[in-house]
Structure formats: structure tokens, C-alpha cells
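step 3/5: co-fold with adenosine-5'-diphosphate
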Amino acid sequence: MAPYRTFLKRHVLWVGFIAAFLPLLALMALQYNSLVKLEAASAYAGEAYLKNFLEGVFDRVLYFYRGNAERVLSVPPSYLVQGNSHKIAWHFRKKEVEGASRLFVMDYTGAKDRLWYYDAASVSMLPSNRQAESRSVFVACAPFQLMSRKGTNLESPNLVVDEKDSDNYMILYPLTNDDFQVVGVAGMVVNMEYFRTRLLPEVIGETLDKYFKDDPDLKPVVKVIDPVDVTAYESDWLPDVAHGVSRYFPWIFSHYRLVVQSGYATPEQWARSNFIVNLSLSGLLAAVLLGGIALAFRAVSRELKLSEMKGDFVSNVSHELRTPLASIRVFGEFMRLGRVTDSEKCEEYGEYIETESRRLTQLLNNILDFSKIESGAKTYHMEPCDLRVVLAQVLKTMEVRNRHSGFNIHYERPDDDFPELRIDCEAMAQAFHNLLDNAVKYSGDSRDISVGLERSGGKVVFWVEDQGVGISRSEQKKIFDRFHRVPTGAVHNVKGSGLGLSIVHHVVAAHHGEIRVKSEPGRGSRFSIILPTTEVM
Ligand code: ADP
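step 4/5: write C-alpha cells
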């Protein structure tokens, strides 16, 4: 169990990330799968929708002709008895039919077959005066004539369409007597003009409205093509017709084709574009989720790293405090017990105690400042200040310690007309001190340090240069982060809080200045603080 726990603890972030990422991946895969299925289904649905539209038009045309024909052609057979023709005429008059150019009755009851046409003006049945049309009627009725001759039983007479003559489409209804024998035929010649100019526009317009009411932009083009491939009817014209479906009319006008064409996309293309939109949305969602997860993990990992650094910080600071305190205590004891009689020694120990206390104060100042910076309570009091004085004081406080450890600090003084700046003297002194302290700490075996103040291009530059351990390029970016300490090499022998440079950075930024580092591992470092002179008094 224990190894697993250690593993989990160590890789908690990765484990967490994978635990969140895997279900997301599975979800994405499922989503993709269902989108692929949806794409296929959508394509069928799109095609089916157009086909349904066709059926809708067919139904209405069929209903119109059947309904009219059934109503008007059901002439009572008794009216065929000679002398009753006016009754037939009144029957037709009463029923008032639409869409027919002529109504007629073929009478097989007499010795000779007679064809009567309905004359609406005189409300009477008249013999035909149109030879071609009459011929067509005789031909169309021929099967019923045969039945009548043969005395065939026709128990359930039906409407029959005859389209042999392309100019005269007819709907016929056999009239039978009580013995179910054909005694005549009532019929109508269909009005082609009416079909073309009134029925089709009305039926197609209404069906389009019904089917595409919610999506008027998707309205298709509808055409009716006649048997010789001439367009008998066409709805709005669209420039680019992408695809379509077409079918022949059922029952009447069975040689006419109804074509529905969508100007937008094939159902497949439409489904594909839907698929792409859906997939992109899902992808976007997943990306946002992943981004969120990554951000959360980054925050957690930073927090973990920070808490690790804080741990190191506490141990480093304790060490930094313990050593000088122990020395101070020992020297203090010596003096209290009167063991130090020599005035020179006494001065030396006193100096030592003073230096170490200053260092401790400096360390505590850093910690206090850092806490103020973190809580946003750090304020700067800008006042006219001579940087030469500030630097001289800092060097003085470090002098004893440096003398003891054999450091040789070379100070390149500026010209006499060095300007006063409006700065926070104490904060700047702390920044100088931190840089100098680092130069000493990270000098390794070298004992040469140079510092300088100079004017350069309208700016003031303070610099510290050592010949010490140096800093690699990748670390140079990180050393100004709080708690960061270069983790490897000769540096790790030196104790420190990891706060010094982050405070320098903050102080310099508050003065609208810039801090630069130039360093090479093993060859030393040069830190420069560049301050603007706009603040010069
Ligand atoms: P510390 O208390 O550790 O010195 P700082 O913030 O002052 O904290 O410095 C951060 C890190 O930068 C140091 O731990 C050290 O690794 C590196 N560093 C700073 N100054 C120098 C220098 N002059 N030479 C080499 N490394 C340096």
C-alpha cells in the first residue's frame, strides 16, 4: 500500500489530470459517434422531407380531380332514357364542376351509340360538333362499349382516367343499371389550362407554405415537366440548384413530372455542415474544459511549489538566524565573564557583534518588507536623495564583515555633478545592500567585487560586479521570483531566504526603473539598477 501512496502523493497532479482527462476523452468519443449517426440520419430526413412535400402536392391534385369527378359524373342511369337529356344537363348544372373543359355522356341504351355534350349556356345536352375530341371520347369509352355489348357485370364501377390523347385527358365513369350492366359513360375532358395556370400554382403555393413555413429560406424550387419535357409550371427560380427529387403524378397527369429542387445543399451536404458545426462546438467546449482543467492544475502545481519553497524558506531563515545569534551569544558571554581584558580584542568582538546584528536586522527587514509587498501594504516615501550617500552608508555597514572575510570592494565613484533623485532612500539602500550581499555570498573563492554609480544616456546606473559562481541563462529569468534559489551547483552551500532579489525587483519597479543581470556560470555576475532621471530635482 505504502509505495502506491507515495506514488500518488508524488504524482498527484498527473493522476488528477489523467482522471479528469480520460472521462472527457471518452465523452468526446461518444459524442463523435453519435454525431456521425446523426449525420447519416439527417441526410435521410432531409431527402424524406422533400419526398413528403411531393406526396403532399400529389394528394391535393388527386383529391381535387377525384372529388370533382365523383361528384359530377355520378349521373343516375335512368336519365339516359330518351327524352330525359335535360335532366342530365340540370344534373351537371347543379354540381358545378371546376377544372373540366367539357362534360359529356355516352349513351349505349339506344340502337345507336350517342355522344352528348353539356352546353352550359343553354343548360342542355347537345350532339358533338368537335370531331377530333369526339373521336378521342369514342376511343376512350370503347372498353365500356364492349362491356355494354357483351352485357358484362360491373358491380363496383370506378373512375377511370384516359390519357391517350395528350390534348384531351379524360376522366370517365361507367353508368350501370340495376342489373350492373353498363348503359353509358359520364365523363369530363380535363381543362389543361386550368391545371397549369390555376390548380398547380394554388396547390404548390399552399403546400410550400405548409412545409416551409418555419424556414422560408429553405424553400425549394418546384417545377412541373410535361410529357414532352417542357416546363408546365415553375415556382421561383433559383440560380444554383444543388439537388432535387422528382416523381410522376399518380393517377391523372401521370405523364407529368413534379420536380423539387433545393437551392441550398444536398441533404448530405446539409447534414455534413450540421455535423461540422456540432463537432466544432463540442471541440470548443472540450478545449474550454481542458483549458480550465489545465489552468486549475497549473494553479495547484504553483501552490504546491510555493508551499515547498516556503518550507525551504523557513529552514533557510532559521539557519541564517541561528549562526549569528550563536556567535553573538558566545561573544557576549565572554565579555560578561570578563574574559576579554585586551581592549583590542574587546573592540574586535564588539565590532563582530555589531556587524552580525546589522545582518540580522537586514534579514528581518527583508522579511518584513516581503510580507508588506505580498499584502499590498508596502508604501514608498519619495524624497530628494543623493545616491552616493546611500551607497557609502551601505558599504560602511558591510565593511567590517568584508574586511574579516578578506573581500576587496572596488568602488568606481561618479563625477562630482552627480544628480540628486527623488527616491525612497531606505528602500533603495536595502536594494543596494541586497545586491552587494549577494555578490559577497556568491563570490565563491574570488574576493574581488566592484560597485559603481554612473550617468548613462539620461539615466542613473548603479551596478555590482563579482567574479563568483555566476548564473545560467535559464535561471536568470527566475531569480527575481520570490523564494527562488538556484537549486544546483556551488550555490546550494550558501544559505539565503530567496527574498533579496524579489524585493530589489519590487523597489526598482516602484521607482519606474529597470534591473538587469549579465552573468555567466563560473565567471561572475553583474547586476545593474537603472533609474530614470526625470525625477531629478
Ligand atoms: P538568496 O537569499 O538566496 O540570496 P536572492 O533573492 O537574493 O535570495 O537571490 C536568489 C538567487 O539568485 C540566489 O539563491 C542565487 O542562487 C542567485 N543569485 C543572486 N545573486 C547572485 C550572484 N551575484 N551570483 C550568483 N548567483 C546569484
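step 5/5: annotate
The domain at 378-535 is CATH 3.30.565.10 (Heat Shock Protein 90).
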